[in-house]
Specification:
9 strands, globular, three-stranded antiparallel beta sheet, alpha+beta, 4 helices, 251 residues
């Protein structure tokens, strides 16, 4: 396997002979997660407020509120993401890596997919080598702080350094004073809404094209060792662990 580095981004070729060799990407990603935590803590001391947080293996906080704010500022975020992705493409150029189905290195570091799901913050934090993402706010400025690293069942490894996406909200105009309204009669108490049925906890694996991969379209790390499921190729796959204890699908 060969390790490539570019401006803090690490990515390794995939090898049939030694697919468990991550070329240091696993250790590198753990370091990036700690850097993200340190940065978030430093910003909080500077008066920034954490609106939401998600981490692969950590407790999620404020996902709904974060998603609402991000969707309200969609044009600003899309502009920032477009600039971010253009810079990534420029840095990697047409560099090829021996990865399954997606040979261009830059594909593993662009983030034009963050609004594909209902929780963009959670999407930014997902990665089988670990990841975390936070939405921070101070005044009319917001910052997305995130890092992720992963591997495909049939590809190599990669680690994205701590990244910031900055966007601002327009300053709200002071509302005109309205005359005081007469007090209304109290409305009758409403009955509490019935609790919605919990959604399935199974998450489709976003680290590769789930329609093209041979394994089942779910991350093996969601299931206990020995679990068997039918793959996209029609064959049964079993959850096994490699020498590092990482779970993977095996036909």
């Amino acid at each position: 396997m060969t390790l490539f580095k570019k401006n803090g981004m690490w990515i390794s070729d995939w090898s049939n002979k030694d697919s468990d060799d991550d070329q240091g990407c696993d250790k590198r990603q753990k370091e990036q997660i700690q850097k993200a935590f340190d940065l978030i803590g430093k910003m909080e001391k500077q008066g920034w407020k954490e609106i939401g947080f998600s981490g692969y293996g950590y407790q999620d906080v404020g996902l709904a509120k974060s998603a609402k704010i991000m969707k309200e500022h969609l044009p600003q975020i899309e502009k920032a993401v477009k600039s971010h992705d253009a810079d990534i493409r420029k840095k990697w150029g047409q560099k090829k890596v021996k990865m399954w189905k997606r040979p261009n290195a830059y594909v593993y570091f662009i983030i034009d997919w963050i609004f594909d799901g209902d929780n963009p913050l959670k999407s930014l934090a997902f990665g089988e080598l670990g990841g975390c993402a936070a939405l921070m706010n101070k005044g009319n400025e917001y910052r997305l702080i995130f890092t992720y690293g992963s591997d495909d069942d049939e590809a190599g490894y990669w680690s994205k350094p701590v990244t910031q996406i900055v966007f601002k909200s327009k300053a709200a105009k002071p509302a005109a004073k309205k005359p005081k309204a007469k007090p209304r009669a109290k409305a009758p108490a409403r009955k509490p809404k019935a609790k919605a049925k919990p959604k399935s906890k199974l998450k489709k694996d976003r680290t590769t094209d789930v329609k093209k991969r041979k394994a089942p379209p779910y991350s093996a790390k969601q299931f206990p060792k020995g679990t068997r499921k039918k793959g996209n190729n029609g064959k049964m796959h079993t959850v096994v662990t490699d020498k590092r204890g990482v779970k993977k699908w095996k036909a």
